Write a sequence for this structure.
């Protein structure tokens, strides 16, 4: 019952991001050698909820005592050991630092309550009680030590909730943490929110879109205790592959050993309380926010109690964080500052998706220490330092992608005197950017697959790994663009825009994101961040859509001059729970509403901008010089590649391109591991031909088709379509239609509706679809207007063929078009392809049904092991052996044998199949003429071998 070690290794990649947070993201400052530690097990809770917390106390040099105290909490999945370096650094600075493993974690007993005020927050008060009894800790009153609390993520929420419930806490520094777990795991960015702060996003009300990947990761970390695995595994007593050991109460383990149901619950829920476990199971299985789930998440959220926090608060949040975005810190700042509590907000280029760089982590550690120096030390203490103020700091916006480093601002920070809109401050300035685009259909596939891929939890934006380009699925998104910018736009916070939506069901699940599109078409998704939209009560009539205000993710990004801001609204995202039912939405832009004296105008994207003073970190100028050199070299390389690409693209256009729709010239595709999928492949296809591409599995057929369609690039050689190079995105590929890997039809729509929707998704004019002509060529008849779910497999295939024929492409590429059809349907499909080629167009068919290739195709290319082994007409391939089957009357058989054997090199004789003649090098027409001239009636004179025989012989010879 022990999980595979590979799963633990994968989890280990993500654990440091969850555990360490900000403070432990870099090597600690040099701590004093005389820092001492004391280990203790601290009791907390009572009755059935009683636990022992495993703690370590770090004490500074004796001459610095008594000293203020800091409770340092760890991130989720960690323990007191996760923050040991930071604790030692703070102790070296003159603080008494208490670290501990939260209940249910590390050496502490109990079960995880998810920062439940009854459990973990009460535990924090028990720790403060211990500090209140120590003479080496500064005391403000009897039982009231001078204490600050800091922590990241799980530990950051503990600091916020602790300050709300325990008035003895004097200052807090929470980092990359949440305001509302409900809004974090069930986000919904719809609705209007007028706060004046730059990163405010609407809170979840009745429901949202379940953030399933992040939730699954959290639950997976907490649901497999090491000692439980050891009890049912190899008994080594430790976590597999170095995972953190976790202790469960002995009584629970004893119950598990005796009770199968208890065992199952422990294996399912691990360290979590039954209440938290049940909430996750409900959310994971339904994707819905039930009142019971909301109650648990709200109870563990600072949202409901931030107005109680009187402790000065330093909020540190990351711009690379798909778990707890900048909007969570924005909401905390608003709630805490509302009653006059001092609040400072710091954003940094990092977060749960990308830890801070070493230098930046050092700066953030100084921010935290400086905050505590001012609010925990006495006014006459020379170590107190300058007042940190209540301003706002954020990384200088740039248009650089994450592939050039995590620190987006290149080490530069913008400092503003106040956080805009906070506690009476002026609201954030906003810039209106017009965007435009037509009303567009957006499809949700059944089961939500395939889905767009933007963010991988803990690994940053997937876009960063691909140079900034996320994976959007055609037909599943609507796009709206600004004009190329005439001046840079530095977005600092969350932009807003109004959409016009309709849905046949009256509701929709969508995902909005703001791309940066360079002049060359390169798309970058800042931070890989997405705004989920759970839209209800919308119009069912596309002609009368509902206006819906949405808030995009809060980002820090510079859109450069000449770039385009592209709003994309998609129906899927891999990181979220998606509707199981297929659906079609209508998505457009809502025009700006009319005002007094002014008519309704173009849709405006409202982007927040924040002014401030730019400061460079120590040594940053050297990095800027290095960055400038790298960019200069990159620019030269880009110009060279652009010149060479244009030279190749413009300089080589084959003059016979219209007569030769497809040409492979010495094409090779090799991969980095040395595998060569296609080797030196050359052939051409002429107008009006139906070419069959044949070969066993692994022959390279699919790779060849993918290169033809511009999906992958060849390593060597050239593929031309109508004389132009077939590169990804090449305009000439618009003359190509294809059908591969399933029909992808929506079952609740009719065939005609599917075809119209598919064409609309291409963005091309409706009159260019030639819908009726494609339908006529495919021969679908009246069945086209019935729902696809009532179609047979053959009818679905024919709709898919018609879909590929939309626009009447000059080159049609089909992969297994007769797959699953019965003989009559195969015969009909054969006629469809022949008639299509008869119009002067060209068809390429890849298939394993050799008999159908023989009857459908005019020409064949046979491949094996990545190479072409034969090419020619079907007749040439089949007749290569020179054997023919001769049909004559029984009385004429002997005379026919004699006539044939008079020809040089010909042998003939009777077989079970009839009279067979091996012609050798004699042409078939000469042998047939000899029989006719002798007055022998010939009923049949055909090659004896079938295409299958020839294929097997050729592949065997290869």
């Amino acid at each position: 019952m022990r999980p595979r070690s590979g799963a633990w290794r994968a989890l280990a990649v993500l654990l440091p991001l969850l555990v360490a947070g900000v403070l432990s993201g870099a090597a600690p400052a040099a701590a004093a050698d005389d820092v001492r530690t004391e280990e203790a097990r601290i009791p907390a809770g009572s009755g059935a909820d009683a636990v022992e917390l495993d703690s370590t106390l770090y004490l500074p040099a004796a001459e610095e005592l008594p000293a203020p105290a800091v409770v340092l909490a760890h991130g989720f999945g960690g323990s007191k050991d996760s923050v040991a370096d930071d604790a030692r650094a703070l102790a070296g600075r003159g603080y008494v630092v208490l670290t501990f493993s939260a209940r249910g974690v590390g050496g502490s007993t109990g079960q995880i309550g998810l920062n439940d005020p009854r459990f973990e927050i009460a535990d924090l008060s028990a720790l403060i009680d211990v500090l209140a009894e120590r003479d080496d800790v500064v005391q403000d009153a009897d039982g009231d030590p001078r204490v600050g609390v800091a922590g990241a993520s799980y530990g950051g929420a503990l600091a916020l909730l602790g300050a709300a419930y325990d008035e003895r806490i004097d200052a807090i520094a929470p980092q990359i943490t949440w305001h509302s777990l409900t809004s974090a795991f069930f986000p919904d960015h719809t609705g209007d929110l007028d706060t004046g702060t730059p990163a405010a996003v609407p809170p979840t009300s009745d429901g949202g879109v379940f953030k399933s990947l992040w939730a699954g990761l959290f639950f997976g970390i907490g649901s497999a205790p090491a000692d439980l695995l050891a009890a049912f595994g190899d008994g080594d007593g430790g976590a597999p592959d170095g995972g953190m050991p976790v202790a469960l109460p002995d009584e629970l383990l004893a119950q598990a050993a005796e009770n199968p149901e208890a065992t199952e619950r422990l294996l399912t829920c691990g360290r979590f309380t039954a209440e938290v476990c049940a909430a996750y199971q409900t959310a994971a299985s339904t994707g819905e926010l039930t009142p019971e789930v909301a109650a648990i998440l709200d109870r563990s959220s600072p949202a409901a109690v931030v107005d109680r926090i009187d402790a000065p608060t330093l909020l540190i949040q990351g711009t690379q964080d798909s778990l707890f975005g900048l909007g969570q810190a924005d909401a905390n700042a608003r709630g805490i500052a509302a009653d006059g509590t001092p609040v400072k907000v710091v954003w940094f280029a990092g977060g749960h998706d990308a830890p801070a760089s070493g230098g930046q982590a050092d700066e953030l550690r100084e921010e935290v220490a400086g905050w505590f120096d001012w609010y925990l030390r006495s006014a006459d203490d020379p170590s107190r330092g300058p007042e940190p103020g209540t301003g706002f700091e954020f990384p200088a916006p740039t248009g650089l992608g994450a592939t050039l480093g995590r620190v987006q601002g290149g080490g530069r920070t913008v400092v503003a005197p106040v956080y805009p809109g906070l506690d009476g401050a002026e609201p954030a300035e906003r810039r209106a950017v017009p965007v435009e685009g037509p009303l567009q259909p957006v499809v949700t596939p059944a089961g939500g697959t395939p889905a767009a891929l933007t963010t991988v939890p803990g690994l940053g934006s997937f876009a960063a790994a691909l140079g900034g380009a996320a994976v959007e699925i055609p037909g599943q998104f609507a796009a709206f663009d600004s004009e190329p910018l005439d001046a840079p736009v530095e977005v600092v916070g969350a932009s807003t825009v109004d959409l016009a939506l309709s849905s046949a069901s009256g509701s929709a699940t969508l995902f909005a994101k703001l791309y940066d599109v360079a002049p060359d078409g390169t798309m970058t998704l800042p931070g890989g961040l997405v705004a989920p939209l759970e839209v209800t009560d919308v119009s069912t009539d596309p002609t009368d859509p509902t206006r819906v205000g949405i808030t995009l993710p809060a980002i820090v990004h510079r859109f450069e001059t000449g770039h385009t801001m592209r709003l994309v609204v998609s129906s899927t995202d891999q990181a979220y729970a998606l509707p199981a039912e297929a659906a079609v939405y209508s998505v457009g832009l809502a025009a700006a509403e009319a005002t007094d004296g002014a008519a309704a105008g173009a849709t405006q994207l409202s982007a927040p901008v924040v002014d401030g003073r730019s400061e460079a970190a120590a040594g940053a100028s050297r990095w800027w010089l290095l960055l400038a050199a790298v960019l200069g070299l990159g620019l030269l390389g880009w110009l060279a590649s652009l010149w060479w690409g244009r030279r190749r693209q413009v300089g080589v256009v084959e003059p016979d391109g219209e007569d030769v729709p497809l040409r492979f010239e010495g094409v090779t595709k090799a991969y980095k591991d040395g595998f060569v999928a296609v080797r030196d492949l050359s052939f051409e296809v002429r107008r009006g031909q139906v070419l069959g591409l044949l070969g066993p599995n692994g022959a390279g057929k699919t790779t060849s088709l993918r290169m033809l369609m511009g999906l992958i690039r060849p390593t060597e050689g050239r593929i031309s379509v109508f004389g132009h190079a077939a590169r990804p995105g090449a305009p000439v590929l618009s003359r190509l239609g294809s059908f591969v890997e399933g029909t992808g039809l929506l079952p609740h729509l009719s065939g005609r509706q599917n075809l119209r929707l598919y064409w609309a998704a291409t963005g091309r004019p409706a009159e260019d679809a030639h819908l009726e002509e494609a339908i006529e060529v495919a021969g679908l008849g009246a069945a086209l207007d019935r729902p696809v779910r009532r179609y047979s497999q053959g009818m679905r295939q024919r709709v898919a063929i018609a879909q590929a024929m939309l626009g009447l492409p000059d080159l049609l590429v089909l992969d297994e078009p007769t797959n699953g059809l019965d003989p009559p349907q195969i015969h009909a499909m054969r006629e469809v392809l022949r008639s299509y080629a008869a119009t002067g167009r060209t068809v390429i068919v890849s298939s394993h049904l050799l008999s159908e290739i023989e009857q459908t195709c005019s020409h064949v290319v046979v491949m094996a092991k990545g190479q072409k082994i034969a090419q020619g007409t079907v007749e040439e391939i089949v007749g290569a052996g020179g054997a023919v089957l001769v049909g004559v009357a029984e009385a004429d058989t002997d005379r026919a044998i004699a006539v044939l054997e008079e020809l040089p090199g010909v042998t003939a004789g009777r077989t079970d199949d009839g009279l067979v003649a091996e012609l050798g090098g004699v042409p078939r027409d000469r042998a047939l003429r000899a029989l006719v001239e002798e007055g022998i009636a010939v009923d049949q004179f055909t090659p004896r071998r079938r295409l299958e025989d020839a294929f097997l012989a050729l592949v065997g010879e290869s």
